[in-house]
Amino acid sequence: MSTEKLIDRKHYVLVHGVCHGAWCWYKVKPRLESAGHLVTVLDLAASGTNLKKIEDVNTISEYSEPLLQLMATIPPNEKVILVGHSLGGLNIALAMEQFPEKVAVGVFLTAVAPDIDHNASYVLEKVCFLSLDNFS
Question: Which residues form the AB hydrolase-1 domain (predicted)?
Answer without folding.
Answer: 13-121
